[in-house]
User: Fold these one by one.
Assistant:
Number 1:
Amino acid sequence: MSSFWSIWVSVITLGSILGCYLLLRWCLLNKTGVEEGDDMHHSFDGIIEINNPLPRWWTILFYIVLVWGLIYLAAYPGLGNFAGLLGWKSSNQNIQSLAESREAVELAKQNGELVQYDREIAQAEERFGPIFDKYASQPIEVLAKDEEALKIGQRLFLQNCSQCHGSDARGQRGFPNLTDNDWLYGGTPAKIKETLLNGRNAMMPAWLDAFGEQGIEEVVAYTLSLSGRQVDQQLKEAGEARFAACAACHGPDGKGNQAFGAPNLTDNIWLYGSTKETVTETLKYGRAGVMPSFKDTLGEKKVHLVSAYVYSLSQDN
């Protein structure tokens, strides 16, 4: 917050408290010329108005609220850029990376600052850490049959993975379906955990410059034929020869290679869509897919549980 806005907020806040105090003092003054307790010579519906002062309990309570407000503003952040005498803050601000967050946590400890978010994280770790430790010592195959472990894994999945893969884990355009048995890098427990820990960077190169428009059309025809689609026979035969450039990743039979994350082109499961137009777009301009690493954000123990949940999704198919 700039100095101007800091001063502005402070003046408005303190001015409001001062205004409330002056208003109270003004209301306590007898401005009527009538002694307190006497008749005000005004009645309505048979009710006579008496010049009574504000109730003492109400006045004292009002003073207490004003004093409490000043104590609160002195102890906690609230007056512009003033940090408060207790050194309390809700969280470490202006953090842009996990490394900066860790540094800020350590710095706050050294300076004796009370960071609410850090304290809540520490309390949660103390409470739930033993639970994650227990599950981390068990194989993923075992956890995939443990209902309580799967509930925890599902919640972690919904919080961290559903934005891309969907709440039902069935994926969407450009994001794999995790409930079938089609895996780009492998669907074993070890491979799933490896993917979650380290992330993936997939790259399908653009072939327009190498093949040209005609060559792209031919390769598209051959690629579509691999999954049983009806295509122009001449284009298919010409595309088969050009497909040798693609075989380095997808294999000579087009069944893919999990070592590279190259998809199987023969099973009619398409990450970006199976229309001729979509496949043409992929060949012309390439694709770049990124699966983020969760090693630092979740940690290995939580990743272990998410891996068990993801692994369980495809075991009934």
Number 2:
Amino acid sequence: MVETVRGQVPVDQLGTVLMHEHVFVLNEEIRRNYPEFWDEEARVADAIRRLRELAGRGVNTIVDPTVIGLGRDVERVARINAEVDLNIIAATGLYTYDSVPFFFRMHGPGTLLGGDDLMVRMFVKDITEGIAGTGIKAAFLKCAIEEELTPGVERVLNAVAEAHNRTGAPITVHTSPGHRTGLVAQEVLRRNGVDLGRVVIGHSGDTTDTDYLRELIDNGCYIGMDRFGLDALLPTDDRVATIAKLVGEGLADRMVLAHDASCHIDWFPQGVVEEAMPNWHFTHIHDVVLPALREAGVSEQQLTTMLVDNPRRYFS
């Protein structure tokens, strides 16, 4: 069984899964203090429309790695999910490229007051009891490393690893292929006792460096080819060619697919995403990428492996 926003779902009924999508990415302090930047009714209605469109393409499940630092609000997601026939799998964890929030700075490992890391307790509670008193349980852990392993990033990785060890929940890591930080994340998790077979190294699709990608795979992880539509980082044609090459080497069973898209992300001014990145939306994979992969020689069974079988194994 896998915990979703609507309750438990048998793992073999997750169906077609996009492994890294967000409903919303928000700064909640800005949203609450400057409401002129947010229209709740309009945003919720738009999210319902976008997710219904995605479900209409045959997607059964999205894995949503929105955690602390990205504006997680599972109550809002649950209201939206009640109107859409789609499994949404929630995460716990903390998103930072640098230091931890001030809430954690004075207590915990290596701090002024020392002691156990409150993050571990929080993450474990989200997985075992539920998030924010809703009863909605997180089914996986999320952390991030961008350019380098700062003390704050390492602390979050350590806390995620400990929560994984206590609960068995799998892990997804935001990484930067250009800085090869997937390898750094693997090493930190490995020395904390994490089974790397339970880890997705996210955003691995941002590179055509197949030597780097093979090294991640050889170390035991899944790789997330999960930013389709972000053509400014790497065009779709290059992403397709990289996947086709690895599939041709027998590595379909180590890749998962997604867009890393959202119904709304407040990092950009209104209209910028649609104008500058018109392919960065939930249906790009089914409308464009899957036909291109077929044209590149990827079989239906290999597509099923990446979209159905690998997510099922990850959550098993």
Number 3:
Amino acid sequence: MMTLLIVLQFVIVVVICIAVLLQKSSSIGLGAYSGSNESLFGAKGPAGFLAKFTFIMGLLLIANTIALGYLYNSSNKNSLAEKVQIDSNTTLPNLPAAIPSAPSAPQLPNEVNSSK
């Protein structure tokens, strides 16, 4: 069932991409290559049909995504974080009692430090 929904998801995405590319935009887009569709879709052309078709396909995409999410979550009850096993016998390394301080920077003679 999940494989069928994943294949359907890819098909819906490809159909939406084609429908969006066929729509008219301010620069005509790829709709110019579809030929004369006014006689098939009516006087307004494919604009109204493609807009409604894209909207319906978008709703199908959202419904399919929700169904895929629900099926995935119901089939996998455990998360990856719950599968991690913690070893309780682990000990921390021994730290030295006193951390030695860093050596100080060497001092230059006064003659070099003074500017003229």
Number 4:
Amino acid sequence: MLRLTTLLRETREHDEGFSIVEVLVAMTVFAMIAAGVATGIVSSLYLAHGSRSREVAIGLAQDAIDAARTDANLFAVTDQTTPTKRDGVVYTVKQVARWVPSAGSANACGAGGGGPLAYKRVSMTVTWTAGTGGSEQSVSMNSLVAPTTSVTAANLGTVIVSVSTASGAGNQGVSVSIAPNASNPSGATAITSTIANTDANGCTYALNVKPGRYDVKLSKSSSIDDGTSAGSLGSQTTTPSTTVTVTANQTAAANFNYDTVMALSPQWSDPNASTTAFTSPTTVPVTLRHKAADYGPYVVGTTAKVFPFTDGYQVIAGTPSTCLSNDPEAWTTANGTAVAPRNNPQTIGATNAVKAPVQIITVKLAGTADNALTATTTTPVSNSGDPGCATTTTYTFTGLPTGGTATIGLPYGTYTLRSGTVTKIVNGLVTIAFASGTPSVTSSTGVSTSSNKVMLDPRRTP
């Protein structure tokens, strides 16, 4: 028995197992090593996937370049963007093609120089997203592609037509006609070959054209130009035209800005009393201004179809081209500020309402039977700041309260007023029997009277 006890005691004293602390330390070290190994594996897989994606992108770019090089019709190689999916990854192939003339710089249609079209510079950019939530990656590749034969035969020329939208992008699908100039063809002859509609870059071409002067005209449904075409300079038109001169072994360019019309609904509105109702004259003109060019006048109540400039139009009541008084910015001012004639388009139904600033005035008719009124522009009072009008304009108001007080709206300027009774209206022409007296006007901000003249002043003291 004593021997057995001794053996058990010795066994307990020589126990060589692991403590709990040692186990925890070992597990921690193992976890750190495993995490590092896992991170390395993930990074290796990510790099391998990224490398694979880049190889695919390079292959797609190379395939696109090869397709451009082998295209029998170099005019068909245009800007385009094509998405494609490989191994679960979506790649976007963007092709940009620019003609380069023998003289000048590259552009979409090749109209940057005067020499013949020499070759095309084709640029491919392939983009994709690296993994879920990853950053966008891209590769690019460029090449010069020359036509297999000369674009135009010797001693003949090329007409390049370039059509851009308001944003600067090419206008595709525009119909183009080219014919000898009617008044002075200078050797030009009819073009018998078919002229294609403009491509994705807004370009089309007439090849092997005999030297001479040619008229180039555009047409496309619901489209209008910006008024800069030589054949319709200063007037927006749905069928713009210009004249080009073709010389031997050279290119002639016809450039247009042409886009889908923007429909505007012109209105008159007093910016200082926008909710006050007033009577409008029988003729209610509105002029639209873009930079230094005026278009119109258009009539309130009709739809004005205009070029969709991205920075919009200024809106002016009346016709400032013949009456500067209508334009608030034309008034001289020492202490005041003219009402800004800009009102950004506000969507109303399917059209945009553009409001031209006018002045509302209250007028007491002169005769007890009067029901009509005329306001005629007149010479401004000296040193008033009113720039005046080059031509005289008369605004006619009918249907006014008989012998009563009327609230009317007029463009800015200086007027003489007469009231009377309507005796006849034929084809819109109003005949009025005028009273002997002079209507009286209620003075208010922007409205002043002097020597039977009424001045409607856009300037306001800040």
